[in-house]
Amino acid sequence: MYKLLLCWRYLRTRYIALASVVSVTLGVATMIVVNSVMSGFAFEMRNRLHGILADVVFEAHSLEGFENPEYYMDEIRRVAGDDIVGMTPTVHVPAMLSFKYGGKYVTRPVTLIGIDAATQSEASDFGKYLQHPENRRRMSFDLRDGGYDTRDHQAGREAKERSVMELAGWEYRRWRVQRERDLEAISGDLDRVPPPEFDGPPDEKVDDEEADETKATPEEKPGGSVEHGTEQDSPVESVKPPSDPFATRAKDADEVFDPMRETHTGLVLGIALSSFHDQEGDERFLVLPGDDVQLAFPNASIPPGVVTDRFTIVDFYESKMSEYDGSFVFVPIRKLQELRGMIDPQSGVTFVNSIQIKLKDESKGDLVRDRIRKAFPMELFNVSTWRDKQGPLLAAVQMETAILNILLFLIIAVAGFGILAIFFMIVVEKTRDIGILKALGASGRGIMGIFLAYGLSLGIVGSGVGMVLGLLFVVYINEVAKVLSKITGHEVFDPSIYYFYKIPTIIDPLTVAWIVSGALAIAVLASVLPARRAARLHPVEALRYE
Amino acid sequence: MSNHRSIASTSHGVRRRGVAQAVAASRDDAAAVPSKNTAPVIDTFPVGDTAPASDAVQLRSLALAKSYRKGRVDIPVLRGVDLEVRRGEFLAIIGQSGSGKSTLLHLLGTLDAPDAGEVHFDGRRIDNLPYSQRDALRNRRFGMIFQFYHLLPELSALENVLAPAMIASDVWSYYRRRREYMAAATRLLETVGLGHRLKHRPRELSGGEMQRAAIARALVAGPEVLLADEPTGNLDRTTGQEIMQLLRSLNRERKLTIVMVTHDLAIAEQADRVVRLVEGRVERA
Question: Which of B111, B135, B137 sits opposite A442 (nearest CB)?
Answer without folding.
Answer: B135
